[in-house]
Amino acid sequence: MELQELFNQSKIIDISFFNFRNAVTGAYFADSNLKIQRVNKRFKNFFPILKNVENAYIPDVLSQLGLDKEIINNFLEQINTNGQVLIPEIKIDIDGELKVFSLLSRVTKDIDFKYLNGIQGQFIDKTNEFKLKLETENLLKKQFHDKKIIEEKSKELENLANKLSKYLSPQIYKSIFKSKTSENLKISRKNLTIFFSDIVKFTDLSDTLEPEQLSAIINSYLSEMSKIAINYGGTIDKFIGDAMLVFFGDPESFGSKLDAKKCLQMSKEMKSKVNELQSQWKNLGAEKGIKVRMGITSGYCTVGNFGSDMRLDYTVFGSPVNLASRLQSIAKPNSIYVSESTYNFVKDFFDFKEVDEITPKGFVRPIKVFELIDDQFFGKNKLMNIKESARYVNINIDEVENIADVINEIDKIKKDLVSIQSKNKENL
């Protein structure tokens, strides 16, 4: 008697599918004949137009969702050939509203329970990302209605993308641009630290600047932030308009704790660089300067190369990505917010203050939010002692308001020293 005969088939499928029941993605499990056996609640919420899909043939379901035959045929070909496939963009009209999803599916195999052999798939909601991209495109069309200017800007953005590709870690560059299809589709689940940043009121800034000014500022900002991210070993996932997504822990990891520490160090240097470049950006037309919000969290994500020979994307999926974005959105301008999970990794290395407690969509319990506190060398309630000994000279400055007071006091002491030395020479 085989092992699978000792257990109830329906129960085993339910147990194997348990991890997907409460997932933030719309998940399904189909048998080896591509007939759907289970879907989770999120799947039903995503697609209310689909009533009962049990035992439905996956290509038929994709057809009902509006996918054309070419995409469906490619789905079948990739599943049969590579054992997995990514459809990066699926547009669906649901109750008059356009929704955009990506679909990742892969073949599953189990030696002991043959009825678990089949296909698992996840629909990821990319609607917000699509809307942001669409808004950016519409903004460009509105501002750069002249065809020649649009072509110049497109070329400039293309050149920027080529430059930024050089900042990718060698492992990712090789995986994306040189590996064969069978290798660059590998994915894994890892504990990563996710970083998300965004320029405050970027739309207002883009509305007030000339195209050349805006281009110079954004090029400068993205280039400087990318250099810092690469220097600390961060993997740049993507740029969404002015937003930036970076993660630590893949393809190389120094351990979850050190990965988180490097991410915090990176964010501090980014913040410092933004402050350093304010005068340059103001000269370019950003009269009020640029303020940036940053959000950081740690947790398990699905990461790897997704796509085909025609299109490849090295990216990360999971609730920590959404949480990092949420932390960034609630952060004060020029501040860095971290979740409790990241705080627990780095609390011995940095100073924090607790600022809030939130329960993001898809999370079952509240999450504490902490703000990274900058190092303060001078300021109110800070004691600074400067002592210098000479004949009859002693300095002790307490509660200094600013560094200018220190400099003035030192100049005064220098004059006193010169006076003392002169008197000593006269007495010899």
Structure characteristics:
428 residues; alpha+beta; Beta-Lactamase; 3 domains; eight-stranded mixed sheet; five-stranded antiparallel sheet; globular
Number of domains: 3
User: Helix tally?
Assistant: 15
Compute the separation of the termini in Å.
112 Å
- CATH architecture type of the largest domain: 2-Layer Sandwich
Strands, count: 13
Mean pLDDT: 78
Class inferred from helices and paired strands: alpha+beta
Briefly, what CATH class of the largest domain?
Alpha Beta
Can you describe what's shown?
The protein is α+β, with helices and mostly antiparallel strands. The chain has 3 domains: about 5-125, PAS domain (Beta-Lactamase), CATH 3.30.450.20; about 130-370, Alpha-Beta Plaits (2-Layer Sandwich), CATH 3.30.70; about 380-428. The chain is built from 15 helices and 13 strands. The chain has helices at about 10-15, 40-45, 60-65, 70-80, 125-145, 145-165, 170-175, 180-185, 200-210, 210-230, 255-275, 280-285, 320-330, 340-345, 405-425, and strands at about 25-30, 35-40, 85-95, 95-110, 120-125, 185-200, 235-240, 245-250, 290-305, 310-315, 335-340, 350-360, 365-370. The strands form 2 sheets. Strands 6, 7, 8, 9, 10, 11, 12 and 13 form an 8-stranded mixed beta sheet that branches. A 5-stranded antiparallel beta sheet has the order 2-1-5-4-3. Helix 10 (about 210-230) packs antiparallel against helix 11 (about 255-275). The longest helix has 25 residues, at about 405-425.
Layout of helices and strands, plus pairs?
Blueprint: H1 9-16, E1 26-31, E2 36-39, H2 41-46, H3 58-64, H4 69-82, E3 84-94, E4 97-108, E5 118-125, H5 127-143, H6 147-165, H7 170-177, H8 181-184, E6 187-199, H9 202-208, H10 211-231, E7 235-240, E8 243-248, H11 256-276, H12 278-283, E9 292-307, E10 312-317, H13 319-330, E11 335-339, H14 340-346, E12 352-358, E13 367-372, H15 403-427
Parallel strand pairs: 9-11
Antiparallel strand pairs: 1-2, 1-5, 3-4, 4-5, 6-8, 6-9, 7-8, 9-10, 11-13, 12-13
